[in-house]
Specification:
heterotrimer, A mainly alpha, B mainly alpha, C alpha/beta, B: mainly alpha, ABC transporter involved in vitamin B12 uptake, BtuC, two-stranded antiparallel sheet, 14 helices, C: alpha/beta, 5-stranded parallel beta sheet, about 20% strand, globular
Chain lengths: ~290, ~325, ~400
């Protein structure tokens, strides 16, 4: 069982799982880090990204890169309405945000049931070929997902560390009142952070829908994954989301292949609970003052 | 409000007494109305819904106790499941009488809470939420995977009645009423006592309360155990009513429902969960026919309530009452 | 702040006014329906709703259902059970005690069916359900009023495995991958046993229902050297992903499904990877005799036709025929006998009614439907053969 081809396959599976998990977790952790909202509507917003890609790529047949960027932009822009209507009433109110956004999640999902119908659809793959690496082959679109994850992480890191807006966002996440005192326009910063977070979420959802399946209920699992990855890595920490995604992805690949999926779920939940008890701010998060 | 530090103890007692009498009077009145209800609304379906609301009240109230100490548990339906399965298994496999089964169910949940409590209750607000979220899932997974004992996803069937012959909707309604009233009385009495004040103090200012000599962790664990034992009781009763239990009855959605009952109704007032239970069970029944629209309206209602009055419907009622009195 | 609170309460009041109590007009014959209308199982619940509605529309177009010397207008009262036990119970209680129906079609899932039967049997309400757990029929026993009108794997499994043995003699080892829900935990041992009885070695693995990533599991499977992967009762979405991911991981053996069915979905999701995939099928939508059914469906609803819809249409038609034979819509004992004696009646899509199940459940209340095996060849589904369950 523990042979070289199997191990190579496990490694490759782990890599592609990690990529998707990281993408899903990024938007979630950003909203928590800056606005202190627990976005229970995360899954449904990802799902909207999936439907957007379905129309742009599957129906209108735009080139893939254009389609996916447009999907992200469309959903993020449309969500600004939701930001004004719903999200901003819950900023810095962590507990209210949980229940309120849960309500938003239900509303979005069932509106989509009415609009799109329940049956599962699929989005055609971006690339059909298989790429051979040593003795195993990996689908080209999985490599593409890994590439996208790396690019998004780097771009985001670049934005946060190297631009003025990124600095303002970081200041706001450290201490909102002092940042305001320093002249940062918190309303604008919130809107910017929200837009970025939803943009990433929509793209993650589009990729998820393409890899698996698209339906109004698609978002449940991404939400669960986002929760676990972000708890692992630290709520509010971007490098934490990356680390958590990688750990969870590889862990799942290794454990499921060698010990079955029940073992994998039990171990990952157990580890996360143990971590929460011993080090609740996650691996890379900041302890509460 | 009473200046407790200035008034002598005798005066404090007298101040509390009329309030206690008022609560008791209201409680007795409500109980009598509910007991007479079946003779007015003689429909088996309404009785069945009524029984369901009353059972859920047990869950909502027991969760309320835990919430008053400042911890919002998302694993409450999991503990209900532990109680239900322990009760059903002891009746089906060990052959004990159903009433003993109920006690075993409550004890099992309480025991699990006692084991887990001291560890998880040390965590603050949001981390506690996340841990209980995962804990609920683990309980559900154990119920699903441990097929030899729990029957796995196919659950346990052919569970008998609580007492031979107590099978009709009317009988189940009265059983639920008795249980709910007892639990409500217990919770209200507890919250009105010294312990209740300690619970609120722990929630609002933990460090200060500790300095005042209140054994914080012991209090939290005690309330947690009590709350979980009570919901274990609800689980046992549910098993006897449905004659069948499976893991889907005790999942994340059900834990969420119990939390929402408290939040919508009012988290810091004991009437809140009662109102929330009625609202959350009755409303989907009233809105049958338009499933999607119903769900959308429900979601919007959650947003509106959470954004506008975080003290829930009870808070809304208080606000309206104050306006009327002005 | 104050204005915000006032606005909030106004909105809430408006919402409350907008939530109207749904009123059921007085119709002549209410037929109860139970199935998931929300959550992941909605497609199956809609299959119940639409299949039964099609039968009702057909009857009403002919002027109503003539039973005895009265003519009735059937009406479907359908409730969501959310695919859970509590949901099924509440739906059943509402149908039996509030709407006062005598006949229920559905539910689909085991948890729901297991919770419905303890309510409908004492009330003498006839139920035509699905749900794979054998207990559903065993629980009612001879005095029960519930029938099962869709095949479970006990009915179609053995015939399919025998067919496999005859047509693909080189296959020796089977992999079963199942979700760990109620149906999965029932099917895995029984189907596994069927394979073993026919001389195969079986490797099985379960996964958490809802997951969509199977590459680790499939990698694990590949290390076992299996000749055929059986997707048995996996839902169409998961089946499609299993086929696609199995091929992507490099699995070269046979893939088929003793269960489902979900051939169109598998074809859609797995694309070129679905070539050669074989499956149990409950209905041949391509047969000329099925055209009428497809056209009628498409006149009312759009989208993919869930494969279970014809089965529920069939159930409703059988019920109507039994009502006519019994001559009453209120005496359910007479209707129950009429149902049991309905052998030979052909509703037009499944051939003559055959009741069986005595050996497996102790009562002859399982409808034995004929079924098909379909294969995807050159990107399109083709019928390979038609089979019938063995009457025992």
């Amino acid at each position: 069982m523990f042979s070289a081809p199997v191990l190579t396959q496990v490694l490759i599976n782990g890599l592609s799982l990690s990529a998707i998990y990281v993408l899903i977790a990024l938007g979630f952790t950003l909203l928590f880090g800056i606005m202190k909202v627990v976005n229970f509507a995360h899954g449904s917003l990802a799902m909207l990204g999936g439907y957007a890609l379905h129309y742009y790529f599957g129906e209108f047949k735009l080139p893939y890169v254009v389609a996916i960027l447009l999907a992200g932009l469309t959903v993020a822009s449309a969500s600004m309405v939701l930001e004004w209507l719903v999200f901003r009433r819950f900023y810095q109110k962590m507990f209210q945000s949980m229940i309120g956004l849960l309500g938003l999640d239900i509303a979005i999902v069932y509106t989509c049931v009415l609009v799109f119908d329940v049956y599962e659809r699929s989005i055609p793959a971006a690339l059909d070929s298989m790429v051979a690496i040593g003795s195993v082959s990996i689908p080209a679109d999985k490599l593409m997902i890994i590439g996208i994850a790396v690019v998004v992480l780097l771009a985001f890191w670049g934005f946060m560390s190297l631009t003025r807006y990124g600095l303002a966002v970081r200041a706001a996440s450290e201490d909102i009142e002092i940042a305001e005192a320093q002249g940062v326009n918190t309303r604008r910063i919130y809107q910017l952070a929200f837009f970025l977070a939803i943009f990433m979420t929509a793209i993650a959802g589009a990729i998820y829908a393409q890899t698996y399946a698209l339906s109004p209920f698609m978002g449940e699992r991404p939400l669960m994954v986002a929760f676990i990855v972000v708890i692992l890595g630290g709520m509010g920490s971007i490098p934490g989301a990356a680390l958590g995604g990688v750990l969870f992805g590889f862990g799942e690949s290794f454990l499921s292949t060698f010990y079955g999926s029940a073992a994998s779920t039990f171990v990952s939940f157990g580890v996360v609970i143990a971590l929460l008890v011993v080090r609740p701010w996650g691996l890379l998060g900041k302890p509460e003052r | 409000m009473s200046n407790t530090s200035l008034n002598p103890p005798v005066a404090r007692q007298t101040a509390a007494a009329p309030r206690g009498m008022k609560v008791l009077a209201i409680g007795v009145l409500v109980t009598v109305i509910l007991a007479v209800l079946p003779h007015v609304a003689d429909n088996a379906f309404i009785l069945a819904i009524g029984a369901l609301i009353l059972l859920n009240m047990i869950g909502a109230l027991s969760l309320h106790l835990i919430i008053r100490t400042g911890h919002i548990s998302f694993s409450h339906a999991g503990f209900m499941g532990v109680g239900a399965y322990a009760c059903a298994l002891s009746v089906l496999k060990l052959g004990v009488s159903p009433f003993v089964g109920l006690a075993i169910g409550a004890a099992a949940s309480g025991l699990l809470a006692l084991v887990v409590g001291p560890i998880v209750l040390r965590l603050t607000g949001k981390y506690f939420v996340l841990v209980t979220f995962l804990l609920g899932e683990i309980i559900r997974l154990v119920l699903v995977e441990w097929e030899s004992v729990t029957g796995g996803s196919n659950g346990l069937s052919s569970i008998p009645d609580l007492h031979a012959g107590w099978n009709s909707p009317l009988a189940q309604y009265y059983i639920a009423l008795v249980a709910a009233v007892l639990v409500a009385a217990l919770c209200i009495r507890l919250l009105m006592s010294e312990t209740g004040r300690a619970m609120d103090a722990v929630r609002e200012a933990q460090r200060v309360t500790e300095c005042a000599g209140v054994p914080v962790i012991r209090l939290k664990v005690g309330i947690f155990v009590l709350g979980c034992a009570l919901v274990g009781l609800q689980g046992g009763l549910l098993a006897f009513f449905m004659h069948y239990i499976d893991p889907t009855t005790f999942g994340m959605t059900d834990s969420l429902n119990l939390v929402v009952m408290n939040v919508l109704g009012g988290m810091y007032n004991v009437v809140g969960p009662i109102v929330g239970a009625v609202f959350l069970v009755a409303l989907p029944e009233l809105l049958r026919g338009y499933v999607e629209i119903q769900r959308i309206l429900f979601g919007v209602a959650l947003i509106v309530v959470m954004a506008s009055f975080s003290s829930g419907l009870v808070g809304l009622a208080t606000m309206l009452r104050r306006k009327v009195h002005q | 702040m104050y204005a915000k609170k006032l606005l909030g309460s106004l909105v809430l009041t408006a919402l409350g006014a907008g939530m109207a109590l749904s009123v059921h007009a007085q119709e002549t014959l209410k037929i109860g329906g139970v199935g998931p209308l929300s959550g992941g199982g909605t497609a199956w619940g809609l299959a119940v709703q639409r299949g039964v509605q099609m039968a009702i529309d057909e009857v009403n177009a002919q002027g109503g259902l003539k039973v005895g010397d009265k003519t009735y207008k059937p009406e479907l009262v359908m409730y969501d059970d959310k695919y859970t036990a509590t949901g099924g119970r509440t739906a059943a209680e509402r149908l039996v005690n509030y709407d006062k129906v005598n006949f229920v079609i559905g539910p689909i899932g085991t948890p729901s069916a297991m919770a419905v039967v303890p309510i409908t049997n004492p009330a003498k309400v006839i139920v035509l359900s699905d749900g794979y757990a054998p207990d559903i029929l065993k629980q009612g026993g001879q005095n029960g009023y519930n029938f099962r009108s869709m095949n479970s794997n006990v009915e179609f499994g053995p015939a399919m495995v025998k067919w496999l043995k005859e047509t693909h003699p080189q296959v020796k080892k089977v992999a079963l991958i199942v979700p760990n829900d109620a149906t999965g935990q029932v099917v895995m041992p029984t189907l596994g046993q069927t394979y073993k009885d026919n001389g195969y070695t079986v490797w099985s693995e379960s996964y958490e229902r809802g997951s969509k990533e199977f590459t680790p599991l499939l990698t694990r499977m590949m290390a076992q050297g299996v000749d055929i992967l059986d997707l048995n009762l996996n839902a169409p979405g998961e089946a499609g992903l299993l086929v696609k991911q199995a091929r992507q991981v490099g699995y070269k053996g046979l893939i088929w499904q003793v269960g489902g069915p979900g051939i169109d979905e598998v074809n859609d999701i797995a694309g070129p990877n679905a070539e050669g995939f074989m499956s149990y099928d409950v209905f041949d939508f391509r047969e000329p005799s099925a055209q009428k059914f497809v056209d009628t469906y498409k006149k009312k609803w759009s989208g993919v036709i869930n494969a279970q819809t014809p089965g529920w249409y069939n159930s409703a038609k059988i019920l109507f025929k039994a009502l006519q034979n019994a001559g009453t819509v209120t005496d359910t004992d007479k209707v129950r006998s009429a149902l049991e004696n309905l052998s030979g009646y052909d509703a037009g899509i499944y051939g003559p009614v055959v009741w069986g199940g005595q050996k497996a459940y102790g009562v002859n209340r399982q409808l034995l439907n004929k079924f098909w095996i379909t294969q995807i060849k050159d990107g399109k589904p083709q019928t390979l053969t038609t089979l019938s369950p063995v009457k025992e």
